[in-house]
Amino acid sequence: MIPLSWYLMLGAGLFVIGMFTFLVRRNIIMMLISLELMLNAVNIMLIATSHYMQDMRGQILAFFVMAGAAAGVAIGLAILIAAFRNRESANMDEFDLLKG
Hints:
Blueprint: H1 4-24, H2 28-53, H3 57-87
């Protein structure tokens, strides 16, 4: 059986990769993908801890995190499509409509 610490290290590694990608890349699509990667890293840690403690609450919470992530990505893609129609670009630096 694989120890819990390996799953937690995997989740932490994926979270760091997602956070680094989110902070460095300026493409909106890459930012959405890195957010999804971070949420999935949290899901790995929740499910591994839940299995280790033999409790279903972590797995149920992971299911709700997945549902929320899917809704967030759908809204983000809708905003991206609307903004892309106006600006013809997916670069985050070019979106300054709400700057005051």
